[in-house]
Amino acid sequence: MSEARSPGASSPVPPQRRSRRRLLIAGAVAAAALAVGSGTAYFVHDAKDASRDGSAVLGLVLPDLHGQQQALAQWRGKVLVVNFWATWCAPCREEMPEFVAVQARDGPKGVQFVGIAVDDPDKVRTFAQEVKLNYPALIGGYGAIELSKTLGNELAALPFTIVVDRQGRVAHTQLGPLKRATLDGLLARLLPQA
């Protein structure tokens, strides 16, 4: 039995588009589950040869908590740890005190953390005060998820971290919490030994 349509009505969605739409929805559900889950699932890309160009990361310019535009290129030559996060993301909130501690310990050695918040500036300010954030928090807003996708965050979930070496090459990307032991190992490899 055929379906009657008025002359201006759109045609039904073809099966290929329905399948693609279902895949996108399933991917979004999986990403949301990862973002709000226990924080134990994560995906890692460790570019041991550090051959991936980090110019896309270093080319970012975003406002800080005072509305001043900040270019990530100002930290070129340092080991740059760029973390996409949000105040509503439990795994993000759990890893940030570790980042604060490592920034205090390794900042003088040439490490610079930068947080890119997928959030409202007022909420970011409040949380930054709570954790005594000692590194820049830039405001990416809700569009920062799309931005993180262009930088390798294929599932568009949080937290997502990119580590750029002193030569401006991506040394590590990770979707999910960046554990302290992994971070310490990366920094030991990327920082000059004294």
Number of domains: 1
Biggest beta sheet attributes? 7 strands, mixed
Large-scale geometry: globular
Return the average pLDDT rounded to an integer.
79
Instruction: Provide the succession of SSEs.
Output: HEEHEEEHEHEHEEH
Q: How many DSSP helices?
A: 6
- CATH architecture descriptor: 3-Layer(aba) Sandwich
Structural class of the secondary elements?
alpha+beta
Number-wise, the strands total 9
CATH T-level fold name: Glutaredoxin
At the first level of CATH, what is the class?
A: Alpha Beta
Rg calculated over all Cα atoms: 20 Å
Q: Which runs of at least 5 residues are low in confidence (pLDDT < 50)?
A: 1-11, 17-51
Distance between the termini: 79 Å
Please report which band the strand proportion falls in: under 5%, 5-15%, 15-25%, 25-35%, 35-45% or over 45%. Answer: 15-25%
CATH superfamily: Glutaredoxin
Helix content estimate: 25-40%
Task: Give a nutshell description of this structure.
By secondary structure, the chain is of the alpha+beta class. 37% of the residues lie in helices and 21% in strands. The strands form two sheets. Strands 1, 2, 5, 6, 7, 8 and 9 form a seven-stranded mixed sheet that branches.
Mind explaining what this structure looks like?
With 194 residues, the protein is α+β, with helices and mostly antiparallel strands. The chain has one domain (15-190): Glutaredoxin (3-Layer(aba) Sandwich). 37% of the residues lie in helices and 21% in strands. α3 links the parallel β5 and β6. It starts with 14 loop residues before the first helix and ends with a helix. Residues 1-11 and 17-51 have low confidence and may be disordered.
